[in-house]
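Format notes (please read before filing issues)

Several people have asked whether sequences and structure tokens are stored in separate files. They are not. Every record keeps both together, in the order shown below: the sequence lines, then the token lines. Line labels are part of the format and must not be stripped during preprocessing.
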Amino acid sequence: MSQYYIIDFDSTFTQVEALDELARISLKDRLDKEKIFRQIESLTNAAMEGRMSFAESLDARVRLLHADQMHLRQLVKFLKKKVSASFLRNKDFFAANADKILIVSGGFKDFIIPVVTEYHIKKENIYANTFDFDEEGNIIGYDATNPLSQEGGKVTLLKELNLKGEIFGIGDGHSDFQLKESGMVDTFFAFTENVERKGVVAKADFVTPSFDEFLYLNKMPRAISYPKNRIKCLVVGDIGDEALTWMRKEGYNIRIRRTIEEKYLEEAGILFCDEAEQPTAQQLETAGRLKVIGCFGKINNRRVADTACANGIIIFDDPKHNPRNLEFIPKRVIDFMNEGKTHMSCNFPELQPPRVNNAHRLIHIHKNVPGVLVQINNIFAQHNINIVGEFLVTNEHIGYVITDVNKGYDQHILTELKKIEHTIRFRLLY
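Then the structure lines:
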């Protein structure tokens, strides 16, 4: 059966509402700009949450813009830098499924086409409104005969297209949910990476805090092996908001507690703590999902650092109250989670591998005994898998191997790698 992906643009493909941003560009020199900005944002939210008809909202917003083609060019340049992070990293998906992806938006082709066509999306598969201009290039209105300018326009369009196959809808607003409500899409995914509209989330088949989550749920190839929104970051102690902002931008599931409790530590993939609230060695023995600790201060017990290492848990720490650690610790943790880099860890051997494109990166942590690397490479050889790059470092406790391999291998080799004797942790990074 054919599959189609109906994807919204504003606050889904991009992080922002384009008309709101166009207003900020076109009205920047007006004394009453803040008042108009608030009006436009209010109109946008009213339509997206279903409290106002889309047609009324759109007409009112366009009248407030006072924009021209020069402002549109500025907007396009801005929007290209505001593509949602999870769409950006999954560009390969759009290339592989170009015939199946439709951008359906109540926005305007004038700014949508230049942005999404850079992601292999076909121009003929972009459905949106069009502005009307006067001879000087000023926006004076839009084509009101386009169904996408009207309430329920996405439903009308999908009925006209009459797509045959399984249809997925991905979006953040009420008009996206209407596709499910009307039966025009089989499954609706509320996209919440940029904005979460409670009324839409409550009615969705699935909530997807990232496009990685959508691909994961549907068992499709993706840029990262496991969605970050599924990884819990436990935060305990005096941790500054700036540090948590870094983790939220990455999409991690932040969970804040006063003390380290075993039931929360056992669920966590990441732990942020300070000098006063640190895990014990015994707690680390049962933290089966924990991959990395970021300590805002110094680890005060060498046994904790050694136990973490022996269990495949890396630690980054920094002197207490060092002004840089609000950025330093999150960056080190993110680099490890994204790239496998161990630079400046206090308990892991040092490794900073370069990122390799068009390859998969596998991380293998094992007890520091002879012969493990040979076993890893024998598995790759037996399955005719080409190794693009390989890095091994050790300390007294562990061997840490990163292997970059060509794509296109059978997934069961991952199970074989996990079963190698003396394996502590194994992870497919991307």
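For reference, the curators noted about this record: The first helix runs from residue 9 to 13. The two ends are 28 Å apart (CA to CA).
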